Every structure is written in C-alpha cells, then in structure tokens.
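Q: What residues go here?
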C-alpha cells in the first residue's frame, strides 16, 4: 500500500495512520476479495487488462505411433476496463499534534478507511450484479413477480451450483477441496440457517482456515455474509406515501391513469420515466404488471394524471393499486445472492503499488487559503480502480424475498 507523506508529518505518524486506514478498509472488501486481481502498471494509461482463458475440449483421438500431434493454441481473451479515480476527505479545525497520535485524526482515519473499503466493495458488487445469468426464486420469471415468501432455500442453492457446474465454472480450491462462493446478507442467512443441512462455520473452523465474514457451507458453497450484499429496492412514489391508487383510466388517446391522490409538482417530476406496478385487485387470482411512465401532470386528488409509455394487458379500474417498480411484487425489496466461481470477474488489486493513497494535509500546509493555520484535512484516494465480468456464465445471481 503506497503512502503519500508531507514535509510536516513525520514518517512514523504517516505510517501509523496509513495502517489504520488499511485495517479499517480490508474488512469491507468482500466482493473485491474474490475477483481475479490485476495491478495497474505505471504509466499504463487509463485501462486495465484482465485475462479470460478458454477451456480445452476433450482430446479423444488416439495418438499415432511416432507422430507428434499438431498441438493446440492457448486461447486468451483480453478484457479491458476503464480506470476511474475515487476518493473523499474530511476537514478539521482542531489542534493537530504531528508527532503523536491525535485522537481526532485517529478516529477520522478509521472512518475514512471504512468508507474507502465500502466504496470499492460497492463498485465491484454493482458490476457483478449486471450479469445476465439470473435465477428467480420459486420458479418466478421476473423480479416483479417475487413475493416475500419466495425465499432463498437449499433448493435454490442446489440449482445455482448445478448451473455453475454445467457451465464448467472453475471452483476455488481450499484445503484440496473445490468450492464456489456465495455472498449473502444477514436477512438471507437468517432464512437459510433454518435448514438442518446447513453447516455452521463453528463446526469446521478448527481444522480449516476460514474467510473474513464466512458463516458456513452448503452443497459445495462457502457462504460469506455481508450487510452490503445487493438489494433491489424501490423509492416511494411520492412524499408521504409509498403507493398510489387508480382513480380512473382512459386509453382512448394515450394510456392515462388519473390518480385518486394529489400529486405535487416535485412528486410529478420525480416520477417521470420511473417504472410502476399496477395491481388488478379485482382479479382472482390477483394480477399485476410493470409499466413505464412517460410523463406526469401534478394536481389535486382526482385530477393528477400519469401517462404510460404503453398500456398494461388488463384495463386498470378505480381502486387498483400502484406500487413502485424496479423491485419485487408490491414494491417489496428483493435480495440478490451472488454465487460464483474462480476468475468469474476481475478487479484491480487495491494493494498494488500506488493504487491507494492515504493523504494527510496538516494545518498550515494550505498556504494563503489557510492564513491562520486553522485547518487540516485527511482523506483517501484510489488512483485507478475498475472491475469487469470475465465469465458471465460463471456467476449466478439468485433474486429472492426474505423474512420481514
């Protein structure tokens, strides 16, 4: 981990604060930890190259005695990703001791390290979650069909493992045994641990090295718990109300829903281009469908209107319910559990030389912008970071509900 020093801050203090930053950064790096790592070369431009290896087919033709076969080519695909810089800092006005550990700066470094790790982890997570190999729990076809009761079960884990094996996803090897990894959040872990086949980490950790956040095993998967595992959530439709209600519907010119509620101009602006779920409450069984808003007109109750890009397959009626789209049925939050093999995705190695810098500017270092030497800053900076999916078929995202 590179250290950026200043003339005013002693080397020992810079080293101390840098270690504090790194110590608080690493526990947050769950998703980043399992990617194929590449370092950013000096003066190597604004891209990083990851390697994707194509597996060899079975060689079933017999050899001819005394004849050397032609051999085969090693197929390596280079996948590039653009590097971006990330960072943040905090400014303080306390008296700062440059030769001893300062309590304020010490606590600040912990917070910055936590933020840096969290930021990098979110970047990697969001890249991985763009994969198209999606498994919806309980046989559902789309995210907006998922209910709270469509939880992650052992059956879903077995399906995901089967998919990875059928796709020849390379496993991680630990203690001579092959494993895939799964990243889950505490809500999902709560549901999954009910299964009697769950093997808690306490049952095997004495004879095996465990990962940061590891909580157990199941069907060839090592489960790592993170509060930052992906969740698909939807914002409320308007201030003070998560849902809206159909007052009337008219599709004579363009599909238009008149709302039973009032809608302010600010609410109308925030709704533009959003997806919504319209639920036919009179149907048996109940039917709902996701549609996209084209434009919105604010107004009082019974006059505010929502114009849709396309009409739903059913005709909305008065008192039908409107939920925020982008998440599960009725706008519920959906969890995304990632199950993946080795080299499924690539990341920049944050411990590569010059990748991460801990920057401390003591009071008095700002020149004329701080004429009375009153302010200091401490921050973190990632000089260049990127993540990329290398083998889409080696990542399964299981989308599911969870116990409320």
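A:
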């Amino acid at each position: 981990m590179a250290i950026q020093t200043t003339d005013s801050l002693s080397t020992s203090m810079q080293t101390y604060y840098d270690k504090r930053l790194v110590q608080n950064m690493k526990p947050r790096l769950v998703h980043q930890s399992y990617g194929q790592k590449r370092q950013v070369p000096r003066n190597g431009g604004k891209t990083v190259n990851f390697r994707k290896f194509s597996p060899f087919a079975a060689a079933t033709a017999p050899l001819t005695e005394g004849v050397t076969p032609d051999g085969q080519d090693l197929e390596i695909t280079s996948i590039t990703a653009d590097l971006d810089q990330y960072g943040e800092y905090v400014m303080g006005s306390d008296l700062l001791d440059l030769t001893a550990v300062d309590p304020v700066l010490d606590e600040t470094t912990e917070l910055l390290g936590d933020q840096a790790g969290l930021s990098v982890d979110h970047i990697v997570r969001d890249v991985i979650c763009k994969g198209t190999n999606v498994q919806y729990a309980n046989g559902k076809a789309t995210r907006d069909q998922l209910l709270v009761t469509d939880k992650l079960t052992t059956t879903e884990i077995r399906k995901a493992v089967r998919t990875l094996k059928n796709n020849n996803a390379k496993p991680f090897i630990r203690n001579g045994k092959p494993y895939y990894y799964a990243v889950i959040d505490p809500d999902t872990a709560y549901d999954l641990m009910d299964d009697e086949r769950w093997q808690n980490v306490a049952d095997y950790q004495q004879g095996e090295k465990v990962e940061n956040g590891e909580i157990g095993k199941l069907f060839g998967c090592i489960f790592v718990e993170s509060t930052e595992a992906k969740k698909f959530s939807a914002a409320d439709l308007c201030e003070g109300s998560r849902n809206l209600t159909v007052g009337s519907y008219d599709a004579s010119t363009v599909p238009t829903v008149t709302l039973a509620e009032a809608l302010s101009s600010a609410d109308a602006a925030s709704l533009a281009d959003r997806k919504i779920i319209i639920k036919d409450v009179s149907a048996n069984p109940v039917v709902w469908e996701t549609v996209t808003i084209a434009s919105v007109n604010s107004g009082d109750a019974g006059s505010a209107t929502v114009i849709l890009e396309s009409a739903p397959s059913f005709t909305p009626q008065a008192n039908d319910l409107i939920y925020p789209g982008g998440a599960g049925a009725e706008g519920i939050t959906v969890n995304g559990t990632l199950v993946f093999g080795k080299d499924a995705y690539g990341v920049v190695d944050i411990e590569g030389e010059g990748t991460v810098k801990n920057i401390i500017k003591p009071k008095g270092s700002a020149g004329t912008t701080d004429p009375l030497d009153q302010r200091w800053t401490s921050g973190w900076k990632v000089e260049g970071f990127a993540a990329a999916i290398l083998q889409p078929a080696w990542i399964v995202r299981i989308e599911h509900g969870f116990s409320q």
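A: Context that may help when evaluating the design: The chain has six helices and 23 strands. Helices lie at 11-25, 30-33, 103-128, 154-166, 186-192, 265-271.
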